[in-house]
Amino acid sequence: MTQDQAQHILGEIKGKWKQIELGVDFDKLKQDLNSYIAQSEESTLWDNPEQAQAILKKLSHTQKKLQDLESIPEHIDFLEQLILEPDFNLGDELKSLEKQVNTYWQEMFFDEAHDAGSALVFIQAGAGGIDAQDFAEIITKMYIAYARSRNFEIDVIEYIQGQEAGIKRSLLQIKGQYAYGIFRQERGVHRLVRVSPFNAAGLRHTSFVMVQVLPEMDEISSSDIIVNPNDIKVDVYRSQGAGGQSVNTTDSAVRITHIATGIVVAIQTERSQLQNKTLALSILKSKLWELKQSEHRQERQSHTEDVSISWGNHIRSYVMNPYKLVKDQRSGFETTDVDKILLGDLDEIITSVLIKKDKH
Fold first, then answer.
1. Which of 53, 162, 266, 307 lies at a CB distance of 3.0 to 4.6 Å from 133, suitable for a disulfide?
2. Distance (Å, rounded) from C-alpha 30 to C-alpha 70?
3. Could you tell me the residue range of the domain that residue 7 belongs to?
4. Residue 234: beta bridge partners?
């Protein structure tokens, strides 16, 4: 990295840091931290283990965020001095600081109700046959890699393999601060253009995948969505077929049908029947919440699986032949480094979508 390149990157970091300083309420962060510390020290903390864990997570995140934000100005000043040295080598340190600043700068764009919470990410193969199933697996791995790069917790709840290759659908539970705010930018139809590895004639093929993202029910107030036991039908059955995650063969799989809306949630993981039922109910509540929000916005087709997973509805294209290009239709972001994107380097493209939305 040349000195000019390093100074350019540091200049961008400083610009974003100024916006963060203006946008972050440091006094409130400190008040929140003191509140979480006080709650964590109460003698009755572990009377409710779930609530205790939530408080400790908030305490840990707020503590880290405040420490990071207070150390960034000093780190910027330090790197500014080192850049002037004739034998400077700041590549790794600059990248580390850039990633840290970008994380907090990105958070400034999250303003919807459950952006700060965890996410349920559904990936479903659409038009394109075997290629679409292969693409669904590529997208799933892309999100897992990206989630890991953000230090999120990931649980692969569902991973239904295709008959010949790839997967028919998958469900990822991604836990972490702002996981929903980040991943909801990925909601929509994704399009892949490439020479099909499953076509003996070596023809170019277009395939599609639908990504649906919901906030995890733990992040939604129980007063928002109430499920009456009389409104659902619960079926217990034996898991069938390869699930991709060593799905068991006991009668622990659970299918819950919400009678009024027709929404069906089926879970067949290695968990017990009770655990699967609890998880299925949580996902059902998330789906009902999203349906309620969609109806309020009168944009139901934009946020549910009713959207045709085919040509004309895609939010992003991944072109690998006859040229290489990833283009987001919403922000206009483009890059020829398709491999980097598919390996999970999504921060820049997601930020471009956030900025575009913020301007409208």
1. 162
2. 11
3. 3-107
4. 256
